[in-house]
Write a structure and sequence with these properties.
The complex is a heterodimer of chains A (128) and B (249).
Chain A (H helix, E strand, L loop, with lengths): L1 H15 L9 H23 L5 H25 L4 H45 L1
Helix pairs in contact in A: 2-3, 2-4, 3-4
Chain B lengths: L2 H81 L2 H16 L4 E11 L17 H13 L4 E4 L2 E2 L6 E4 L2 E4 L2 E3 L3 E6 L2 H9 L4 H7 L3 E12 L24
Antiparallel strand pairs in B: 1-7, 1-8, 2-3, 2-7, 4-5, 5-6
The chains are: A mainly alpha (128), B alpha+beta (249).
């Protein structure tokens, strides 16, 4: 829930911000955005599966964004669209993270359903 | 995991989500803005095109206006001529001055000079060496004037005292209109003198011919040179009053 609130706050701030990203930095902002999106999804997944570690999360966020922006810069100077590497990697990881989040949520629901069922059956046993 | 650590983690993810939202919104806005800039460019192009068309229409209108005014002028002149005997002299002078000013069609013997871009193969590596430039045309015109040409036209455009001959890209602008090769120059004057002036050794035609530029000079018995069909508007120059000013002479 908090993630959604954070996203909405960020969107609102971004929309109301009086300063637009200059077009020559648009690519950097886009790769940085992808890195942040990947980190956010990864963090969410880690929190769901209870593997979350703050230092890992923060270092990953900052490091990934820095490398993505650096790759973009390097690619622009070398004349090779290196930012595509970041796009592909983050894109793949986003799908992976999403898949894990999905499984986690679905199985946890199944688990809870099973628990409820067990409880129901035990209750039935008790009442019997 | 401790409860405090959990809380901090949640906050961190929320912060990153906020960053994602911010970047997303900012990026969307900037992309939308640059798209709008493209649209403005297209709109600007359209505006300029319509402005150009409008101005061309205006120019056509003004040219027809000039024609009308000139016919009015002719009417006045006829009236003046039919009036008094003394005005006959004035009319003769007016005719003379009109030829000089290029305000009337003139005909007479003279030469035709045709210049075409070089067809010979390029050996210096510079394409510009083999094309006709404004300086070439000017030297031809200058030579013709020096040989006593009384009226000159370039591709049908009367050369006046104020006419420019100037390269504008691949074409040459004369009297504000653009002309491309081949350039056909009519000059009215003594055909023999003009012909010799053109074709003399080390003359203009000779030098241009060395670059492979085709120069064809033919003398004719009757050439027709049209009048200048624009307006001459003096903004700064005016007739000086006799005896006024110290800087005369």
């Amino acid at each position: 829930m908090l993630e959604l609130i954070g996203l909405l706050v960020g969107l609102a701030v971004g929309l109301l911000f009086p300063w637009a990203i200059p077009s020559q930095y648009s690519l950097y902002a886009a790769t940085g955005l992808l890195a942040a999106l990947d980190s956010a999804l990864g963090g969410f997944r880690a929190r769901i599966s209870d593997e979350f570690k703050l230092d890992v999360f923060l270092s990953g966020t900052v490091g990934n964004a820095a490398i993505a922006v650096f790759l973009t810069w390097l690619g622009q100077n070398l004349g090779i669209p290196l930012y595509l590497a970041a796009v592909v990697v983050f894109g793949t990881r986003m799908f992976q993270n999403f898949a894990e989040i999905r499984r986690e949520l679905l199985t946890s629901r199944q688990k809870s359903a099973k628990i409820n069922q067990d409880m129901d059956t035990s209750e039935e046993k008790h009442t019997r | 995991m401790s409860k405090k650590g959990r809380k901090r983690g949640q906050l961190a993810v929320m912060m990153v989500c906020a960053v994602v939202g911010f970047l997303l919104a900012a990026q969307l806005r900037s992309v939308k803005l640059s798209g709008a800039a493209d649209a403005t460019n297209a709109a600007r192009l359209e505006t300029l095109q319509s402005l150009y068309n409008e101005l061309m229409d205006q120019k056509d209108g003004l040219e027809s206006q000039v024609e009308q005014l000139q016919s009015e002028l002719a009417l006045y002149r006829d009236q003046a001529a039919s009036g008094e005997a003394g005005s006959q002299a004035l009319k003769a002078e007016l005719d003379q001055l009109e030829i000089t000013a290029g305000l009337t069609d003139v005909e007479g013997p003279g030469v035709t000079v045709i210049l075409e871009d070089s067809t010979s193969s390029n050996v210096t590596g510079d394409e510009a060496d083999y094309l006709i430039h404004d300086s070439d045309l000017l030297s031809v015109i200058n030579e013709l004037r020096s040989a006593g040409a009384e009226a000159i036209s370039l591709n049908g455009e009367r050369i006046l005292a104020t006419s420019e001959v100037r390269c504008t890209g691949a074409v040459v602008t004369v009297n504000g209109r653009r002309y491309a090769a081949p350039y056909i120059i009519f000059a009215i004057g003594d055909p023999d003198t003009l012909y010799n002036a053109m074709t003399m050794r080390n003359g203009v035609a000779d030098i241009l011919g060395q670059w492979g530029i085709l120069v064809k000079v033919t003398s004719s018995d009757l050439l027709l040179i049209p009048k200048y069909n624009g307006t001459i508007d003096y903004q700064y120059a005016r007739s000086a009053v006799q005896g006024e000013g110290e800087g005369e002479g």
